Amino acid sequence: MLALDKLSAGYGGFRALFDVSLEVKAGETVAVIGPNGAGKTTLLRAISRLIDPSAGTLSMEGQSLNRVPPHEAVARGIAHVPENRRLFPRLTVEENLRMGAFLPTARAKFAQRLEQVYQLFPRMQERRRQPAGTLSGGEQQMCAIGRALMSGPKLLLLDEPSAGLAPVMVQAIFEVVRKMSNEGYTVLIVEQNIRQVLGIAHRGYLLETGRIRSSGTSAELLASVDIKQAYLGL
Amino acid sequence: MQFFDVFLLEAVLNGVLFGGILALLALGLNLIFGVIDVVWICYAELIMIGMYAVYYLHAVFGWPLWLAFPACIAVVALLGMALHQFVIRPVLAAEPINQLLVTGGVLFLLQGVATLAFGVEFKNLGIQLPPLQLGELYLSSARLVAFVVALGGMIAMYLFLTRTYLGTAIRAISQDRAVMPLMGVNPHRIFLLTSALGGALAGLAACLLVLQYDIHPAIGLSFGPVVFLVCVLGGLGNMIGGFAAAFLFAQFISVGGYFFHLEWGYVIAFVFFIAAMFWRPRGLFGAKS
After folding, report:
1. Residue A89: which of B168, B175, B183 has the nearest Cβ?
2. B50 contacts B203 by C-beta, under 8 angstroms
3. Closest CA to A186 of A52, A27, A63
4. Is residue B110 part of a domain?
5. Least packed by Cβ within 10 Å: which of A70, B166, B229, B259?
6. What's the ipTM?
């Protein structure tokens, strides 16, 4: 579904990604793990076209995305839940979800998808008239994921959904991702919470200083010695 | 109860009517600032152009008013879009002072062009609506019409901003511009739409003002600064605050003018404004953060 071939990208003169090749197949949940500053967020921003690649190719379902303007990535089926959630704080929960369904094709299915999102996150229905800025961190994450789902995406990009959440909420969020994975959503998830994300992902990539260092099934990655040394302190 | 006489009531009612049109003017300026983060210092000049549009279409070319008014709104809406496309867009990332200066430049440009094109003499439609009499009370019916239409325009704008996808996107983009592409929204198109709406509000105001005032190239100066102060008083970018501040400010002018002298009304209103700025520098109702 999604393919990156030797993709490089950065900000201005600063390069954050070097020759990244990566693939996500339909129905897969793929994790990208790595330390702070490895370029994980930049990777997702390049995929959703918020930044331009400086070299390499980016394609979705066989079609190049390299020159697609940022606001058209959603129409190609990519929904990005950005770092820090980025909800509209003074819009209500339901208005935030409405914004996720802004494209005409999504508007037609608004009522149906809203019901699906409320089924996935009953808490969002309870709080639908509340400004999103008044939600707790975990609730905001749910709202942000819900907003992305409202576009009916083929591929969901999640940027550190567990960051800054209380342990109970971290569990809840990963449970949601597992549920979506089981339901057949295609997910590319970036996380620092390695053990847990590899517990739900099919495959993973290890990103370090802008380069893919290793890749494999979640079990392989988890077993790989350097990860244990670098992150699990074993 | 000698204190509470019919003239005071008339002053209060006139203040309410004046407040309505002031609120409409403030809404357009607040909409632009709240969403695009740029102050259209030349806002009143757009209204001046709109007034000339009505004058020429109706009094010179003989269009009926019911046609000249919508045409004026469309013309000023297009002018608003052009202003964004050619003047604001190139300086969107520039310092606020530069943005202020370019729209200030447009102010003098439009005034100059209007002077060259339309001349300096005062023009009017020659329409005199009869005053409305309620017992001993006299009210200007042009003001009453302006009040009702301005209120209707503001309600329509409120419904648009809260009930439609595009309106919600306008409110959303004012809260987080950079995340909008992830919603599939092209921010530039929302800015153009907002500029068209701001222009349309100025056009509507022009239709209402042309029934009450003579037109001349510098007429923008007679209410432009007042509208800007009302917006600041209500909190720049705060549409509800601007609405409340418009009625408050209009009461100061109207009732102050009743107790002392018409010009004193403005003095009292401006003294109140300055005092309010010391007391609450971000406006009575809080500015957009």
Report:
1. B175
2. yes
3. A27
4. yes
5. B259
6. 0.91
